[in-house]
Amino acid sequence: MTTTIETTDPKIQILTDSNRSAEELSALVHQIYEAVAEPQNWPRVVGAIAKSMNAQQGLLFTPFMRPQDGGFLFPWMIQESNLQLWGSKYIEHDIWAQNIAEKDLWYEGNALPDEQLVPRDVLAQSVFYREFLSTMEIGRVCVGIVLNGAPGLPAACLSVFKPFDASAFSPSDIAWYQLLIPHLSRAMALLHRLDALHVQNQSLLAAFDRLDFGACLLDENGGVLHMNPSACSVLSRGDGLSIDKQNCLSGMSLAKLSGKSPESLNDWIAKQIASATLLSHQTAPFSNAFLQMRSEPGKRYALQCFLLPASFDSATHRTARMVVFITDPEAVLLPTVERLVDLYGLTPSQARVAIELGSGNSYKEIARELSISESTVATHVKEVYSKVKVNRQADLMRHIMALGKASV
Questions:
Q1: Residue 37: exposure state from Cβ atoms within 10 A (0-12, 13-18, ≥19)
Q2: Other CB atoms within 10 Å distance of the CB of residue 390
Q3: Residue 45 CB-half CA count within 13 A
Q4: Which residues contact 252 (CB under 8 A, 6 or more apart)?
Q5: First to last CA, the chain
Q6: What's the pLDDT tens digit per position in 26-66?
Q7: What's the sign of the alpha-carbon dihedral 53, 55, 57, 59?
Q8: Measured between alpha carbons, how far is 358 from 289 in angstroms, rounded to an integer?
Q9: Distance between CA atoms of 160 and 60, rounded to whole angstroms?
Q10: Is 12 exposed, middle or buried (0-12, 13-18, 19+ CB in 10 A)?
């Protein structure tokens, strides 16, 4: 129960006017500072703040910097495919962020409703709304400026969203937001100054956890450091994949070599790590998928291994060397050639190569399937990287599969 107090304290007056309690404010502030010690909790914090604003979605992010360039994304109730689209295409059309910068409103503690940023009719006619926001049922925003981009810190904000036809964020909503933003600013500034790389890595871990297909992070010896919920679900079935006594993924390939036993998953992963170590993540060719036997005849898992940035640390603070993606080939529905051409301006040939990569095929297999040389495949992949705005294999694979539908 909230007690009514007669006071001139503006903070108490805000709570009274907004029908919110000091207890609710205290609980949110507590969650904010807890996330400094445990950055994996930032999506939960975003959700709690968005709900306190009667918003349907929320995003704590660096609006002028993609995650692959050193930024971060901590979403609530926003699909991974939409985050991928924002970072690869629509970041350049974000008229909300652009207008904040152009109007010189980007300073810490500011809380800005959409009507202060862009006229409603201008938003409705924009590429950002027509092609992107409308597909997510987003048309209203209240932007809280968390970091202003001071030396050593990125520009960051927390945006909470409502549908286009929802009521505007009220003055009491904005005043409430202004009570919370300074705590977010202090928490994020402290976290970045302590370990900016850890924030970026937690953002990448959270992205893996949002995927509908399996993702396992491995150390330089193939030991499992982290599994996303989908990978945990696969392992819990005991249907072909397991964790051995050395904490490594264990299984047996479908492919039999002439006169030899099927290749073990341990041996295959060791080969991928050894070959990737000799090359950078930009030049290492895509490996053949490992086809894992399952108990039911004709069923299998497809596994692919990709190098991670050398600086990537897992939640255990051990260096994660590789990520293994696990999919059920029968449950993969990749984007069409036409969709990739339309989204990124790929040529049909480049789009077909991207889709083949998403299917788990190596350069050699793609060359054979499309009747082109391996060097042509490599050239197409380089162009796809540039147009999709990714710079490593794992990001491209995650992007292509997230745009379609892949599960286990």
A1: exposed
A2: 21
A3: 28
A4: 240, 262, 263, 264, 265, 292, 293
A5: 46
A6: 999 999 999 998 888 999 999 999 999 999 999 999 999 98
A7: negative
A8: 11
A9: 9
A10: middle
Mean pLDDT of the chain: 88
Look at strands 322-327 and 300-307 and give their pairing: antiparallel
List phi, psi (to 5°) of 175.
Answer: -65, -40
State how far the Cα of 75 lies from the Cα of 154, in Å rounded to an integer: 17
Q: For residue range 139-166, list pLDDT tens digits in order.
A: 999 999 999 998 888 999 999 999 999 9
In angstroms, the CA 143 to CA 110 distance is 8
Per DSSP, the residues of 104-126 read T---TT-EEEHHHHS-HHHHHHS
Please give the C-alpha separations between residue 259 and each of 178, 266, 391, in angstroms, as whole numbers.
70, 20, 40
Q: Dihedral of CA 335/327/319/381: which sign?
A: negative
Calculate the dihedral angle through the C-alpha atoms of 287, 293, 296, 302, rounding to the nearest 10 degrees.
-20
What does the chain come to in residues?
Answer: 408
SS3 190: helix
* 193 Cβ neighbours under 8 A, 6+ residues apart: 152, 153
Other residues' Cβ atoms within 10 Å of the Cβ of residue 259: 5
**What SS3 class is residue 223?**
strand
**Cβ contact 149:58 at 8 Å:** no
In 3-state terms, the chain is what percent helix, strand and coil (to 5)? Answer: 50, 15, 35
Q: Which residue has the tokens 């402290």?
A: 190
Spatial contact of 41 and 35, defined as CB atoms under 8 Å apart: yes
Give the global pTM.
0.86
- How many other CB atoms sit within 10 Å of the CB of residue 159? 22
Structure tokens at 13: 């007056």
